[in-house]
Amino acid sequence: MADTYLTFQKFNDAGLAQQIAERLKQNGINYLIENNQKFFDPSFANNTIDPDIIIKLRSEDFVKAHQALNEYYQKHLENVEEDYYLFTFTNDELREIITKPDEWGHFDYQLANKILRDRGKEIPAEEAAFLKTQRIKKLAQPEKEGSYWIYVGYFSAIFGGLFGIFIGWALAYLKKTLPNGERVFAYNENERKHGMTMLFISIFSLMFWIIFRTGMLSS
């Protein structure tokens, strides 16, 4: 069975993505790069907002990759420009980075640690490890979709089918990838049950409307 590669990081900058990929390669970590950049955007909206270059890894390599990149950036903290924006952060703002490394990236995470250390506010290794564990637990919590999309999904399931199939599948089977490579369902058990019911109704409804419209056209 072929290895499954999951999204590890997303980038706007192809050069930065390639640089990260080289670090992974040097540490014996296999990867895939997907480049979804558009060479021409007919809307003229420019693609720089949404990351569209993706590095994918096997789930079992996520922890090793994070460790390799953290060790790499630790060696390059002395050469940071004095006007780098993190130097203006308060201690509380820097601690916020430590609690959410998945949002800030490896470099900012390591630099935040260094700045706090230089200020005499270093976070002990045990506490940092605890914060990472708590962050994983928080990210693993199911999303709260709310009743609006459930109502929309059921409505679509009964009166059209296609949109209901999309919403039903997402609620029932959509998963998210955690920073440690673990995959968990995106929604809670109750919403997943709604999704499976919605999916069944949508398929039945779609078949009904196809047969009904075909009969109307042939009569």
Describe what this molecule looks like in 3D:
By secondary structure, the protein is mostly helical. It is 56% helix and 11% strand. The chain contains nine helices and five strands, in the order E-H-E-E-H-H-H-H-H-H-H-E-E-H. The chain has helices at 14-26, 62-74, 91-99, 101-104, 106-118, 125-140, 147-159, 162-173, 189-218; strands at 5-11, 32-35, 53-58, 175-177, 183-185. The protein has a three-stranded antiparallel β-sheet with strand order 1-3-2. A two-stranded antiparallel sheet has the order 4-5. Strand 4 and strand 5 (183-185) form a beta hairpin. Helix 2 (62-74) crosses helix 5 and helix 7 packs across helix 8. The longest helix has 30 residues, at 189-218. It starts with a strand and ends with a helix. The relative contact order is 0.09.
What spatial form do the alpha-carbon principal axes imply? elongated
- Calculate the terminal CA-CA distance, rounded to whole Å: 51 Å
Strand order across the largest sheet: 1-3-2
Major beta sheet summary: 3 strands, antiparallel
Would you tell me the structural class of the helices and strands? mainly alpha
DSSP summary, beta strand count: 5
